Amino acid sequence: SEDLGSLKVFTGLEDGLLGITLDPNFLQNNWIYLYYADPETKTNDKGEKYGENRAARFTLKDGKLDLSSEKILVRVTTQRQECCHSGGSLAFDSEGNLYGSAGDNTNPFASDGFAPIDEMPGRSPWDAQKSSANMNDLRGGIYRVKPEADGTVTIPKGNLFPTGTEGTLPEVYVKGCRNPFRISVDPKTGYVYWGDVGPDAGGASQERGPAGFDEVNQARGAGFFGWPLLIADNKPYRDYDFATKKSG
């Protein structure tokens, strides 16, 4: 709309303008936070397309977005070979910490509705282990940062890993999500809630694992919530070799 100025976003593969929230002191500072897909798509040396989703702060002036005011707070690198699951929601807690969600950025359609864990070469877009089960990646989870007045962020205490932990990102608060499309934070307890869209398996399979379940989740603290290894009340998927079509 006109009120959003001329902010350009990438709108393919379920991306776009994904999340929006106001600063807790919006009436004083006019700060608004957007989670959006940057329009530039790049190609790496393997010929794979990728881009960047951003949580950024802008200032509203006269009812319009001041694009020159942008402060990028969090960057999420995404693959742009295949859909799906961009997630994308922003929320503040009562202590001024900003939470943001990101989907697993994984194509589920070659997995028969079960866990997308295709480990064959070149099949990363079909493997959610690269994102949801990778603690060095912000996709497939919820991150938590403390925005500072100068447009930088600090890391609150109590995130999943202390800053400097090898193989992890300090922004990570929740991992093991599939597509956490909306989040909220209880202002009294600090508990984080989110809806997570489930896979499409219509029933359980002895060879693959449980049926598809949608989830409504509560995090009373940082943690790993299972996807793509578990779903629902910790129902495990079987390991599956997509090359041999055999279960482990």
What would your notes on this structure say?
- The protein has one helix and 18 strands.
- With 248 residues, it is an all-beta fold.
- Strands 6, 7, 8, 9, 10 and 14 form a six-stranded mixed β-sheet that branches. Strands 1, 2, 3, 4 and 5 form a five-stranded antiparallel β-sheet that branches.
- A hairpin with a 6-residue loop joins strand 11 (180-185) and strand 12.
Summarize the structure.
With 248 residues, this protein is mostly beta strands. It is built from one helix and 18 strands.
Q: How many strand segments? A: 18
Beta-strand residue fraction: 35-45%
Low-confidence stretches: none
Task: Give the overall form.
Answer: globular
Cα distance, first to last residue? 51 Å
Mean pLDDT: 95
Tell me the radius of gyration.
18 Å
Biggest beta sheet summary: 6 strands, mixed
Helical residue percent band:
under 10%
Task: Output the number of helix runs.
Answer: 1
Oligomeric nature of the chains: single chain
Tell me the structural class: mainly beta
The helix/strand series, from N terminus to C terminus, equals: EHEEEEEEEEEEEEEEEEE
Keywords:
five-stranded antiparallel sheet, six-stranded mixed sheet, 248 residues, mainly beta
Secondary structure elements and pairings:
Layout: E1 17-22, H1 26-29, E2 31-37, E3 42-43, E4 49-61, E5 64-79, E6 89-92, E7 98-102, E8 141-147, E9 153-154, E10 172-175, E11 180-185, E12 192-196, E13 215-219, E14 223-224, E15 230-231, E16 235-236, E17 240-241, E18 246-247
Parallel strand pairs: 10-14
Antiparallel strand pairs: 1-2, 2-4, 3-4, 4-5, 6-7, 7-8, 8-9, 8-10, 11-12, 12-13, 15-16, 17-18
